[in-house]
Structures are given as C-alpha cells and as structure tokens.
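Input (structure):
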C-alpha cells in the first residue's frame, strides 16, 4: 500500500522535561484538538508535522505500522525523557469496517504529556513556543436533535431480525449500532466536549482525533515495552436510582446468563487473538463489575507479555474487531451489521489512540463518541445482540449509552 504521506523529508524531534503543566485540556490552543487523557494523565497535541491517510484493506494496521516506522526511523530524535508517549507520537483513528477509507494517523508538531509525576513537551521543528488558546472555547448553543439512519421503532425491528438469525443458528452474537444527530448554532469546539467528558468520566479514556471525540471505557490494547494490557467490556446495565437500586442491578447483571454469554464471546476472542503473540497471557476466569456514572459493565482485565518485537499497531491488527463491537463469528456478524444497521459506522467502534517511535501506545475502541463536523455532531451507540435479547431493552440500553455525549454537548 502506497500512502500519500504529508510530511517533511526528515522530522527533527526534541523532547524536554518540564514542570507539571496541570490540566492538559486548557493548554490546547485551537479546536483541532488531539488528546488522549485518563485520570488527568496522558498526552495532548496540536499542529501537524505529518499526516498519513490510510486506505481501507485487510492489512491497513500492519501497513500503517510499517509506514510509520519508516517515517520515525528517518527522524532525528532527541528524547532524554524516554517514557511511553515521548519522542514523536502519532495519534490515530481507524474506520470500523476494513473497507472504510476514513482512517488516519497524525503526527502533531507539539505534544504535551504527563505520566507518573513526570511531564514533558515534544516539539518537531524549530518553533518551541507553546501558544496560548486563541480564545476560550464556547459551549454549543441552540442544539436541535434528529434521528440518524433508523428511527427507534425501525432499530427495534432490526434488533428483532438479528435475534431471529441468531436463534436460527446463523451466528452467536451481533452488535447493532444507532446514530443520532445534534445540530448547533455555531461550529462545535471539541475542547468543550473534552473538558466535560474528562470531568464526568475520569476513569474512561477521553480522546479527540481528527474530529472524533469521546470517552471510551474500553481499552483495546496498551503496549509498554513487552507488556500488553486489554480491558474487555461486554454486558451492560443502566445505573440505578440510588445505592440499593445500584446493588440490585449489579447483582442481576453478574447473574445474567444473556450478559455473561455476551461477555464470554468477547473475552474468548481476545484470548484467542493474543495467545499466538504472547509468551505469557492471563485472562480472568470470571468477569468483574466496572461502574461508570451512567452504566455498569461486565469487565475482564487481560494481561500478557509479547513473545517478540511488535508495535502496538501490530497487536491492534490481531484484535479488531472484537465481538464486543462486531459479533461472532466475525465475518457473519459484519455481514449482518451491513445489512441491518442501514448506515456506515465510519470510525465509530474502530480503534482510536496513539503510538510512539518505540511501538508503545494505547488504543481504545471508539465508543461513547461523536464525529464533529462544523456545527453538526453525529453520535453513536451500540448493543450486543444474542439469542435472549429483547428489542425494547436493547433500545433502552442504547439510549443510556447516548447520554455521555449528550451530556458533553448540552452540559
């Protein structure tokens, strides 16, 4: 695959340690935000030293990793800090469908980061100044809402059709998504959404890459040297009205055969995908409960050690799409998604994250997100459908999942 790389012939990169900059989001100087933040730590970037648009295809992740290695190998890098996320970094977002042409990697000119009590600034080129924001980002105003590809009743019918196929034995699980549009009076500034999401969902990975903004609870893969970590989420219920209701809902979720089956599909696939790549791998026998402000999930934290030298993007290639966002078996689930959803997901439920010159990085699944284009936001929410799924209950779950981005837009 030949990429149309927009970059100088040789990147000149310098990373320096700095004093703690505090909250990273207010340091972003303009709406073209690049961000990956959790619990106040992570990296943000601005400017563009290189851009790699990525055509679709079955080898898009490994091809992207190869072209990025070539770009970074030719760079002059001065990085005395030497942490994951220092030196040159590419933020990336990939389309969900292998045929999607929407994927891109962006190497910013400036990266500001903080991790484990240390902070740094990376600069590509001669401009080492950190510009102040041009103006304070204004919240969206006069929002109006409209359905996406399917109305609520039409989406319920799609869920019912998927259940029929599953009960007939065509597949075990399919994840069906909905979209929803918000229209504002003025262009929407992603920095406002980032600030609200990071404040409301600190345990999630709050991200912004090429107009895709969200806060995902699901870590697809983290590579730190030879170690890899993944957090599998599948099986969901809404939060209760109080402590007693929360406890009852959590107990029902942990005991739910439907949700545990849905979770098992996802956890087994991650195990099967990582096992050939790892010398050591630990997958919990039982899921735990992950509690967020709006929903609760069944969760399995997976840990391993790679058997050879692989970039985080090589591991992403082995994992995407997981049953948590596609279904199982993968091919039949993708065919059913294309048939029933009535839309192109774009980058929703695709990998989003970052990779550095060492091949370290963190990639999540683009959930609880919206694609921002001018004064319009396209929101997404999806649900895992299995044989016992009830269309009305799945619609209610999707509506709960929309609420994260609705909060980010409405405040």
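Output (sequence):
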């Amino acid at each position: 695959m030949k990429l149309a790389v927009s970059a100088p012939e040789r990147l000149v990169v310098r990373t320096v340690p700095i004093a703690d900059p505090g909250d990273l989001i207010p340091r972003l100087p303009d709406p073209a935000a690049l961000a990956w933040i959790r619990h106040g730590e992570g990296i943000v970037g601005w400017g563009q030293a290189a851009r790699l648009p990525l055509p679709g295809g079955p080898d898009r992740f490994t091809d992207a990793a190869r072209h990025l290695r070539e770009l970074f190998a030719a760079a002059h890098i001065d990085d005395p800090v030497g942490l994951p996320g220092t030196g040159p970094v590419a933020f990336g977002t990939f389309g969900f469908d292998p045929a999607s042409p929407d994927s891109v990697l962006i190497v910013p000119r400036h990266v500001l980061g903080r991790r484990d009590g240390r902070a740094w600034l990376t600069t590509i080129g001669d401009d080492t100044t950190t510009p102040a924001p041009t103006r304070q980002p204004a919240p969206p105003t006069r929002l109006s809402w409209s359905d996406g590809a399917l109305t609520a009743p039409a989406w319920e019918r799609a869920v019912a059709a998927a259940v029929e196929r599953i009960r007939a034995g065509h597949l075990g699980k399919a994840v069906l998504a909905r979209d929803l549009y918000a229209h504002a009076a003025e262009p929407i500034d992603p920095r406002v959404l980032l600030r609200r999401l990071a404040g409301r969902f600190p345990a999630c990975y709050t991200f912004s890459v090429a107009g895709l903004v969200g806060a995902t609870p699901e870590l697809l893969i983290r590579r730190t040297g030879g170690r890899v970590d993944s957090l599998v989420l599948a099986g969901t219920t809404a939060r209760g009205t109080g402590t007693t209701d929360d406890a009852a809902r959590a107990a029902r979720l942990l005991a739910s055969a439907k949700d545990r089956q849905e979770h098992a599909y996802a956890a087994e696939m991650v195990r099967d995908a990582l096992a050939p790549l790892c010398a050591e791998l630990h997958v919990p026998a039982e899921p735990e409960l992950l509690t967020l402000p709006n929903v609760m999930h069944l969760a399995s934290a997976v840990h391993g050690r790679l058997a050879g030298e692989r970039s985080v993007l090589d591991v992403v290639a082995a994992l995407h799409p997981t049953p948590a966002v596609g279904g199982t078996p993968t091919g039949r689930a993708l065919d059913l998604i294309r048939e029933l959803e009535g839309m192109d997901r774009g980058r929703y439920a695709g990998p989003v994250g970052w990779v550095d010159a060492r091949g370290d990085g963190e990639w999540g699944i683009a959930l609880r997100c919206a694609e921002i284009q001018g004064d319009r936001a396209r929101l997404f929410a999806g649900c895992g459908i299995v044989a016992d799924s009830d269309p009305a209950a799945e619609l209610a779950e999707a509506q709960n999942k929309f609420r994260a981005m609705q909060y980010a837009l409405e405040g």
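Notes: The first strand starts at residue 12 and ends at 18. The chain has a mean pLDDT of 93.
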